[in-house]
Amino acid sequence: MKHNKAYQVLKKIYDDCHAMDCSVFYDFANVVHNDSIGSLEITFDFYGAVEFTMLADCLNLFHDFGYDHLTEVIDYIHYEYKLASSQ
Questions:
Q1: Structural domain includes residue 87
Q2: How many CA atoms lie within 13 A of 55 on its CB side?
Q3: For the whole model, what pTM was predicted?
Q4: Which residue range(s) make up the domain with 22?
Q5: How confident is the model at residue 11 (pLDDT cuts 50, 70, 90)?
Q6: Is residue 73 part of a domain?
Q7: Rg (CA), the chain
């Protein structure tokens, strides 16, 4: 999975979001599958050029990957984070 383009893009955005304290990764997770991973309402009030570019990178993944694959990647990234946090 780690060599997959979708994984690489989403993992970078996930890491950048944590460093920047922004919600782009979670907002995209809500687009892909609307559940308890992120906030249920997406607001662009705090988005600037960087955040919109990050979201565009996420949305571009739909060109090559579908909902099912992107959901798997998002779930895998969350699993990795939980695993690393528990160690």
A1: no
A2: 20
A3: 0.83
A4: 5-82
A5: very high
A6: yes
A7: 12
Residue 65 CB neighbours (<10 A): 19
pLDDT at residue 23 is higher than 80 = yes
DSSP H or E segment with residue 2: none
Burial of residue 60 (number of CB atoms within 10 Å: 0-12, 13-18, 19+): exposed
The pLDDT assigned to 2 comes to: 58
Residue 61, in any domain of the structure: yes
Band (33; pLDDT cuts 50, 70, 90):
confident
Q: Is 21 left (phi over 0), alpha (psi -120 to 50) or beta?
A: left
- The secondary element (H helix, E strand) that includes residue 60 is helix 49-60
Q: Per the structure, how many domains does the chain have?
A: 1
Interhelix angle for 49-60 vs 24-32, to 10°?
30
Instruction: Please indicate, yes or no, if residue 54 is contained in any of the structural domains.
Output: yes
